[in-house]
């Protein structure tokens, strides 16, 4: 039954979870504030779900107080706005602008919604200034409920999510190793792992950004994710070069390599001790350390394993509280809140543009319905705040889903009204419809049930068919207003953001390549390299995150191919042994200059044929000079970096 429900987009687990969280708060608000206050419970219910990443285990009272202050301030301002329509529009313009400006970000695109919902409900429901005292009591109760939900249900959810992500990626690597041994390499596993790591990197950064992970834990998580990405790339490269013809020596290595992943899993779960794990790792590395340069992938694996051992041991050495996310991170900037406001308070900022757009259209829609006092006017501002998104593309898709779901819901409702005549059965259908809508992951399908429920409820006071007409008209008007606003009032398109991060990616790649050249001279600044890798991964994660909305395959390829470039650089840095290098530094300086020029040409879409021929000639000549295994491995790595830039260029042009 559950499988059938999932096929139509209904998640029973999500439905049950939301029902358990939502039903109590709605009942409490109804008992204390009466039927007019029932709708005010919805924003607090939404807040209970959306604040799950805020880690109330750390300084819970401060976070409780923050929510309470915001709720109290908004309640008082919204109550003042209701006194006069013209004064109200000015209060709403300022209030909505700052709520959206402060609470929207790439990491939490919808955190502003519960507050905006609360403003709309409070101003449009029959709750007057005389009800201010009882409303503030409901705010206190709602805040207590939200905080309680965070502590009980969402306790430690973020660290669990990251741990699960890492374990899932390790299992994907194990599956891929098995595929290579069988001669059935799976390209989809390779791409799935990259996507998983990018999502993980974005989560790690967002949790650090919110100060939910300690500095040590965030750094360890990031290090492990980069290494997993490295193993994934090595296996992909191995597949390309071996053409699935795995000899016995390589097969033996891969079988034992897979066992090491099982040991890592056991060690992370504390099913084996550090001494046993270290012995297994040392024995494995000793067995294959003298492998010839022909099997250079083995050397790359051994180097990464040594790094992974360091990060895993660091993770195990953390005390339980820090591992589970109960220790607060160290803020690099104690005034980060004011810094973000200062940085984003300009016309180029996503926050500023979206906040201005939302405040103008939502304030205007609230003014219209409060001034003309038409029936069921709440539906217009709710349509506006639901479908208006920071990006034009998201707004279009949300508008289409809203219209589609509304029309289907009204058609189904018309049929239901002909079948079920009694008010009692209609009340049951209305309540069930609204709660069933919570279980749908697709918005258009959820809207069908929200439409049925809300229009049925309206039919008890307006007649049978009148609310159907009003629902359609308000949704249509809201969609038209929002689309025009997103098109003409400081529009913000996803493709423009991707172009911006693409340009940044090129600059970061040059920085990383400079670190490769510096490593030849014996200069390895680990902190700087870690920072560059962190920025590249974050940048790639952002590109991947935004592209998920427009699903351009060439943008995904850009992310995938850049991973090859990163790992080529990383492998060369960690495998460099200064004592054995005999290659001339001057040769590398020429290559460094050519690579910088190559990246400049890629970014400007210029012809790279001549510069590529120069680099190819230099690499070939330097490979012939190489005598030691270390030199040969370094030049093979440099060749892989060069190959990766070709794939990068192809995808960069199309994007």
UniProtKB/TrEMBL annotation:
Keywords: Membrane, Transmembrane, Transmembrane helix. InterPro entries: Memb_transporter_dom. It is a multi-pass membrane protein. It comes from Clostridium cavendishii DSM 21758. It comes from the Bacteria. It is found in: Membrane. This is Fusaric acid resistance protein-like. Pfam families: FUSC_2 (PF13515).
């Amino acid at each position: 039954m559950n499988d059938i429900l999932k096929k139509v987009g209904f998640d029973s687990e999500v439905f049950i979870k939301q029902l358990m969280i939502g039903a109590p708060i709605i009942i409490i608000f109804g008992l204390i504030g009466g039927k007019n206050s029932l709708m005010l419970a919805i924003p607090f219910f939404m807040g209970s779900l959306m604040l799950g990443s805020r880690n109330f285990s750390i300084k819970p009272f401060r976070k409780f107080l923050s929510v309470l202050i915001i709720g109290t301030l908004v309640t008082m301002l919204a109550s003042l706005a209701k006194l006069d329509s013209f004064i109200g529009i000015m209060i709403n313009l300022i209030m909505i602008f700052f709520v959206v400006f402060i609470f929207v970000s790439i990491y939490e695109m919808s955190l502003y919604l519960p507050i905006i919902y609360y403003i709309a409900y409070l101003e449009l429901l029959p709750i007057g200034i005389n009800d201010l005292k009882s409303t503030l009591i409901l705010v206190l109760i709602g805040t207590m409920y939200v905080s309680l939900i965070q502590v009980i249900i969402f306790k430690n959810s973020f660290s669990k999510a990251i741990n699960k992500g890492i374990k899932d990626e390790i299992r994907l690597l194990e599956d891929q190793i098995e595929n290579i041994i069988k001669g059935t390499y799976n390209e989809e596993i390779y791409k799935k792992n990259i996507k998983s790591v990018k999502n993980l990197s974005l989560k790690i950064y967002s949790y650090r950004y919110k100060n939910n992970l300690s500095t040590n834990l965030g750094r360890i998580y990031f290090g492990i994710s980069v290494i997993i990405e490295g193993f994934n790339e090595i296996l992909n490269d191995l597949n390309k070069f071996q053409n699935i013809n795995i000899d016995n020596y390589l097969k033996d290595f891969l079988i034992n390599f897979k066992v090491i992943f099982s040991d890592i899993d056991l060690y992370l779960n504390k099913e084996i001790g550090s001494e046993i794990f270290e012995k297994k790792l040392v024995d494995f590395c000793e067995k294959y350390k003298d492998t010839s340069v022909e099997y250079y992938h083995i050397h790359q694996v051994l180097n990464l394993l040594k790094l992974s051992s360091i990060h895993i041991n660091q993770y195990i050495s953390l005390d339980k509280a820090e591992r589970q996310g109960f220790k607060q991170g160290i803020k690099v900037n104690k005034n980060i809140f004011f810094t973000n406001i200062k940085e984003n308070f300009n016309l180029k900022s996503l926050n500023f543009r979206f906040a201005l757009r939302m405040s103008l259209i939502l304030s205007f829609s609230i003014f219209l319905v409060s001034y003309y006092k038409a029936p069921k006017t709440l539906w217009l501002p709710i349509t506006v705040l639901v479908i208006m998104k920071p990006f034009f593309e998201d707004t279009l898709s949300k508008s289409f889903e809203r219209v589609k779901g509304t029309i289907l819901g009204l058609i189904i409702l018309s049929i239901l009204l002909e079948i079920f005549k009694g008010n009692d059965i209609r009340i049951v259908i209305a309540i069930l419809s609204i709660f069933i809508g919570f279980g749908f992951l697709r918005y258009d399908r959820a809207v069908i049930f929200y439409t049925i429920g809300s229009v049925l409820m309206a039919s008890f006071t307006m007649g049978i068919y009148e609310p159907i007409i009003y629902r359609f008209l308000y949704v249509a008007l809201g969609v038209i207003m929002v689309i025009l606003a997103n098109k003409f009032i400081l529009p913000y398109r996803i493709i423009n953001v991707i172009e911006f991060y693409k340009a940044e990616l090129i600059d970061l790649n040059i920085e990383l390549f400079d670190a490769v050249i510096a490593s030849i001279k014996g200069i390895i600044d680990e902190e700087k390299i870690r920072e560059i890798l962190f920025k590249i991964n974050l940048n790639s994660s952002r590109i991947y995150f935004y592209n998920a909305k427009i699903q351009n395959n060439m943008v995904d390829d850009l992310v995938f191919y850049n991973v090859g470039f990163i790992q080529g650089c990383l492998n060369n840095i960690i495998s460099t042994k200064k004592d054995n290098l005999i290659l001339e530094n001057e040769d590398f300086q020429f290559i460094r200059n050519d690579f910088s020029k190559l990246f400049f040409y890629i970014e400007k879409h210029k012809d790279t044929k001549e510069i590529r021929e120069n680099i190819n000639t230099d690499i070939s000549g330097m490979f012939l000079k190489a005598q030691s295994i270390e030199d040969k491995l370094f030049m093979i790595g440099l060749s892989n970096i060069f190959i990766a830039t070709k794939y990068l260029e192809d995808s960069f042009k199309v994007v």
